[in-house]
Automatic annotation (TrEMBL):
It comes from Cyprinus carpio. Keywords: Disulfide bond, Glycoprotein, Membrane, Phosphoprotein, Signal, Transmembrane, Transmembrane helix. Pfam families: DAP10. GO terms for molecular function: phosphatidylinositol 3-kinase binding; signaling receptor binding. PANTHER family: HEMATOPOIETIC CELL SIGNAL TRANSDUCER (PTHR21409). GO terms for cellular component: membrane. It comes from the Eukaryota. The keyword Chaperone does not apply. Belongs to the DAP10 family. One of its GO terms (biological process) is regulation of immune response. This is Hematopoietic cell signal transducer. It is a single-pass type I membrane protein. The lineage of its organism: Eukaryota, Metazoa, Chordata, Craniata, Vertebrata. The chain crosses the membrane at residues 30-50.
Amino acid sequence: MTKKSFLIFFSIYLLDKDSCYGVGSGTIAGIIFADVAVTILIVTTTYWYASKRRQKKENADEVYMNVRANCKT
C-alpha cells in the first residue's frame, strides 16, 4: 500500500467514523419484543379464524346429515 492510498483510506475512515449510528440495547430489546408480540398476534388470529371456519364446516355437515335423515323417514 502506498503512502497516498493509505492517507486516502485513513481520511475516509476518519470522516465515516462519526456517521455510524449506534443502536442501544433498549432499542434492540424493544424491536425483539415487538416482533414476538406481532408474531403471537398473527398466530393467534390465524388459529382463531381457522377454528371458526372448521366449526362452521362441521356444523354445516351436521345440518345436511339431519336433513337427509329426515327425508328417509
